[in-house]
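The protein record quoted in full:
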Amino acid sequence: MRAVVVGAGIGGLVAAQALRRAGLEVVVLEAHTYPGGLAGSFFHRGHRFEAGATLVSGLAPGAPLARAAEALGVALPFPLLPEGFPLMELLLPRGRLLRPVGRVQEREVQRDFFGPRVLPFWRWQEDRARRLLALAPALAWPPEGEEVLGFLARLPALLPLLPDLFLRASAKAPKDPEFSRFLEGQLLISAQTPKAYALYAALALDLPHLGVALVPGGTGGLAQALAQGLEVRYKARALRLLHREGRALGVEVAYGGRRRGEKEVVRGDLFLLNVSPEPLLGLPERVPKDAWGAFGVYGVLPFPVPPPYYRQNLRKRPFAFLSLRPEGEKTVFSLSLHTPLAPWLGLSREAYLRLKTLWQEEALALGEALLPGLREAELLFAATPLTYRRFVGRAWVGGLPQTHPFRFPRVRVLANAFRVGEGVFPGQGIPAAALSGLRGARLALAYLGLPGTP
């Protein structure tokens, strides 16, 4: 039996490892020269930069990424940051707020900054996060096929959570404009919307406490670890999914590099899609109306920067998120802002370059407030939604904005073709993408009548 995985993002790599562990022949097709997709790293003029995601979380014992690695027999030997480590600094109108590693430590910082009225919110958040984490590895939504029985078996554990299912996180928060600004900024980068529903928000806010590591090589180092032992064909762009009578037969691939100009149909028995399936089926891609694009500025600073390595400017919209990574006596950074997609579409080249320059100046001004000297970068370049569309095949980034729990499409695209990655439950972020890979592999193996992954 042969499985073909399209896209070497985190979800695709986890699914590929699960199918390989089940005894299938697996080939992974990746359009780029590195694994990870938007959770990968790329080289430019001798330096390594993050393509998108910068925070690696979920490595603590029992957390999603650690569970996935254990189930797959994959070693992720990345030391966790200790409790109390200054992970993230937020610049608010009232001052600078730290998010340290550790729930207890963060609760103390929050109480000192916002006052004791925020403590009930954090107690609620911790309770909901712990309950959801216990269910996460085997929870499927909406349940498909054989997942229905497992979902019904877990219903008693879900019942206490149902009252929060249709509430927004803001309904649980104290009526404090400063705390509302904090919540808006954190949910925008972790759930793609400040209007996230409460249950999703509770888990998204827990990311600093699920086992964070400063992975050598950044998120690309994690992707490289997950790709170990797999047959990954790089510079292999999937053009279309061949299918007949509701069943996938093969993927038409165009190669680059040394095989430039060569095409091939890669056939298989199972297909796992870590990309949007519509273009492969000859259909227009479904872009959510509230989807965001990203504007990113990358650079290399000629001096070392101490932690915190993640900083967010919440004083002015659009909020700016700065990620820093030590590189010897220098510091590599990425500075990202959410941007609407519409202003970037249909522009002349001159208008596009003007808009790009305006956004770069705005980003650097916001970034300077987080780290003075940012403009001293030895190497400075920017990426727009059109840049991401050129390199990852779509202008919008991140998962579906989690405004309500019924946004996820079906995992099964055809009888033997399944989606994985941030576009399906449990959503965006590295831990969630890893769990989606396990889920897609379980459904694929069930289709073959083989035992599923843990």
Summary: Residues 2-75+217-287+401-448 form a domain with the FAD/NAD(P)-binding domain fold (CATH 3.50.50.60). The first helix runs from residue 10 to 21.
